[in-house]
Design brief:
The chain is built from twelve helices and seven strands. By secondary structure, the chain is an alpha/beta fold. It has one domain: 3-Layer(aba) Sandwich (Rossmann fold). The longest helix has 14 residues.
């Protein structure tokens, strides 16, 4: 296993070989990849059907295709300093059995799989393309034995997790309050959940797939406050650490 500093340096150098993995997985040339990434956010936003979408999960399972990979990859490449700080956060808390919920392109799951403190990573994402891509990346990076892949938490068949990582996901869910209640049920008194959220569609509706309904958001915060206690960490980022209230 690699030490923490090496893991962070490897991410800062090349985002765990993200560009080369994308080119190989998508069979795309580097010159075409750059354009694919440059237009990723607007291309993903343009795919969203707006109010016509009756089931939020349909967007990620039936509509996005490989555009979600591009959007996430562009964000991780252009925001390396912020992403590195989230990796520092999980290095402080991640241990033993880790659930990476909505793991996207796999940055955090792969980093946890490289850690000697982590026994196994259970990668959950409803998007089959994302799961296949991260499984490919895990093999390329030599950590495939420490990650397994699932469409849902239930499929993993683990009753308790020591660490839950759920970053940049909750704002995409129709009912984020229900999701964190599920997290509470699969945590014990020593488990830590690493969470953040961005309940905002943007000034120009650049994030049409985010939830911004006031009632849903208020219910989420009430649920957080009644079920979880924040655990302090000194890293100046939006992500937070929580333990459940006994």
């Amino acid at each position: 296993m690699k030490n923490n500093n090496f893991i962070l340096k490897e991410f800062l150098d090349n985002a765990f070989n993200l560009k080369s993995h994308l080119m190989e997985f998508l069979s795309i040339e580097e010159c075409d990849l750059d354009g694919f990434l440059a237009n990723a956010k607007i291309n993903l936003a343009n795919l969203h059907p707006g109010d016509a979408l009756s089931d939020v999960s349909d967007f990620y399972t039936k509509i996005v295709g490989d555009r979600h990979l591009a959007d996430l990859a562009a964000w991780h490449i252009t925001s390396k300093d912020y992403i590195t700080d989230t990796l520092k956060l999980q290095q402080r808390f991640s241990r033993d059995l880790v659930l990476d919920f909505g793991g996207g392109i796999g940055t955090h799951a792969l980093a946890n799989a490289m850690s000697s403190k982590v026994e196994h990573v259970f990668f959950v994402d409803i998007n089959e393309t994302n799961r296949n891509f991260v499984e490919y990346r895990a093999k390329e990076l030599g950590v495939e034995k420490k990650i397994t892949f699932f469409k849902s938490i239930e499929d993993a068949q683990i009753s308790k997790f020591d660490t839950i990582v759920c970053l940049d996901v909750l704002e995409h869910l129709a009912d984020p309050a229900s999701q964190i209640e599920i997290f509470k049920e699969i945590m014990d008194c020593n488990s830590i959940a690493l969470l953040n959220w961005y309940f905002y569609k943007g000034e120009k509706n650049e994030y049409p797939f985010h939830i911004d309904d006031n009632q849903i958001i208020e219910n989420f915060f009430k649920t957080m406050q009644s079920n979880f206690l924040e655990v302090f960490h000194p890293i100046l980022i939006t992500a937070r650490a929580y333990k459940k209230i006994r």
